[in-house]
User: Fold this.
Amino acid sequence: MHINYNKFTLKNGLRFIVHEDHSTPMAVLNVLYDVGARDEDPGKTGFAHLFEHLMFGGSVNIKDFEGPLLMAGGENNAFTTNDLTNYYIQLPAENIETACWLESDRMLSLSFSERSLDVQRKVVCEEFKEHYINRPYGDVAFKLRELAYKQHPYRWMTIGQELSHIENAKLADVKAFFFKHYCPANAIVVMAGNIQTDKALALAEKWFGNIPAGEKYIRQLPAEPKQEAARVLEVKADVPLDALYKAFHVGSRTDKSYYAMDLIGELLGGGGSSRLYQTLVKEKKLFSNIECYHFGSSDPGLLLIEGKLIRGTSMKTADQAIGEELEKLKSKVIGEKELMKVKNKTESAILFEDMSLMNRASNLAMYELMGDVAFMNTELDKYLEVTTGDIRDLSASIFDEKNSNSLFYYSNN
Amino acid sequence: MLNRKTAPEITDAVKFQLNLPPHQKISLRNGVEVYLVDMGTVDTLMMNVVFYAGNCFESENLVAAAANFMLKSGTRSKNAYEINDFFEYYGAYLNRQSGHETAELTLHCMKKHFAELLPVVSELIADSIFPEDELAIYKKNMQQRLQVNLRKNDFIAGRLIDTYLFGPNHPYGRYSSIEDYDALNITGIKEFYNKFYLGGRCVIFIAGPLPADIQKLIDANFGGLPLGGSVKPDSAPAKIVPVTEKKYRITNDPDSVQGAIRIARNFPNRHHPDFQKMQVLNNIFGGFFGSRLMANIREDKGYTYGIHSYLTNLIQESALMISTEAGKDVTEETIREVYLEMKNLCEEPVTEEELKTTKNFMIGTLLGDLDGPFQVSGRWKSLILNDLTEDYFYRGIETIKNIQSTDLQELANKYLKAADFYELAVF
Assistant:
């Protein structure tokens, strides 16, 4: 499916993309800021995400963000990753100007209220507890990142490395963060839905055009040195079952190996006919579940495998069984039909994802962040170019023992 | 100079005309009803094959869920791997869901592969064999998953509150145990399958830009199956026996840092005249991000990451449920504030401003919720499975547009009385 769009750059450097879809009565305004948890100070982690919460606490001219949006029949949300922060509003297309008014004012400046910071610190602490402390295996993602990354800021989680970093956040930090990252030079705005491009552009110029450009943030992050030896971490915790996690370093989202890597993840862990599930859950009965996934991160990322062991299975047996499956991908070329399967799954996944106007809007912004919005329409072709030889060669380099990080998570019950 | 202080002009969402795009109903040779929603611009399709085979119809716990799950575990000509490989080769997703009343197979696929996929969907329905070793794997894996879930306060709270509301023997209130999984056996599952799938009522919903020969395709693949046609299984709804005791504090994990809270009351089903009005009141109370519960307990006090209230999606009887996880040290305050918000709705009329905002928000989001063939088909499915007609949909819109704050206050006084609520915190 070809996604139509027009791209503009406003005088202040703001990138603005319009996608028309006249089959829907709705419109979406998506604002992406090129800042994520990787841009944080190691002593003040969790800040990009805490900041996302503060973006709903009122802006310089608009005390209440939520009320006027509801009145216009709209809904909104936001998310923060290690790489970026994304805000979106969906509302009836007639009322799109309300979304422009609200989003442009908070790009202009926040109201920086001490009260809002107080409350959102607490809310984020509860979010931290709900997702990572108050549940079994909740600390795994923290431990895996710390094991796999020694230099790069991907070593901490978006929610923050520890609660105290959030608890200690100061209003001065909030202001500094805002003026460094939240400006037209570091943002991409997408307007999508039942709108005309010329009218959309006029609205963008009216509401966003006179916001001071700000300074383009030049990212200078420490590169993660190549891992030279296998790493193993053993943990004992109050959980009901032993679990095994493995993380392998892979290329970035814009690396040419990305497409083959994504397909490898699908071959191993995507669905009931995937290799790890069929062999280790169904045939050998060593795991009660097993998954393989990655985050498609902007800087070199991780391919992860995780599973819970069937009670009575030893960690060594489970680890070896995974190793054997990875070895097969490294040493033998897979069949053309199996490769076609994961390509078909990818084609289908893209099509289903693009059904939603909200997804199309945020994806357009993300491809522009990756380098060019045009990539959105050439993505499938890049998957289709991957060969069985590419899969074998890339598997050999990813699943090198020296590139592995294993977390053996034992139940102490 | 641009005026950033004043909101731009808006069109009030209540002025929008909302339409539920039509469906086409056909009946197959064997009496199976099929509802077609032919719309959409992307070449993807969704098909829900619904059976009256939820846990309301089982005589042994977990049999309904196991029968539903095992529809992908093997037929006379294909084993589980071959079934999964077949659907995945075409990039299709065939999911199973088992609820209280109904159980489903749901197919999402690219339009170009639909005709090739249908014969195998049909085969799973008509020719599943339920292999012993597949059941053994299912039991073991589900028991392990349950062991992990039992460590989560939120999971425990969700199970217990349903038991309080509906009674431990009602299908809505019954929950699974390790021993129940041990007791599952092929004989019971096959009996259930024979009675409620092969001999049961089947209703099919298909949505998307449909192929021109859709009727022929469906009839060829499903019209000849030995299904029970349009007759609902004659099982009288189980009696709802709410428990007497209303307040509970449960310790599940001594090290936990949050309490999982549920505050709930029984509520009539969609056929009751108050149901749609209650959806408006609930919206104000705790139905979305800008609700009073969120504004007070999250955005003012910071006690929780999120708090929600909702009417549960059940056919026989609903419940009004308030659900949150709050810091252990503020759990009791959180519960107090929930009751305080109920009291406010009983004592103070909702202001005209808040009412108007609510109406615009509800209509605006409804417009978005109807955007696309799958969403429209989902609306029809909900109406049809609840024995409601199109009229219910339009009455709902009229209710939102016309309801007054006096109606809401009256409703609050009827349904938001603290004494009527079950109250549970799991630490």
Notes: The radius of gyration of chain B is 24 Å. Chain B has two domains: 24-222, 247-426. Chain B is about 45% helix and 20% strand. Chain B has a mean pLDDT of 95.
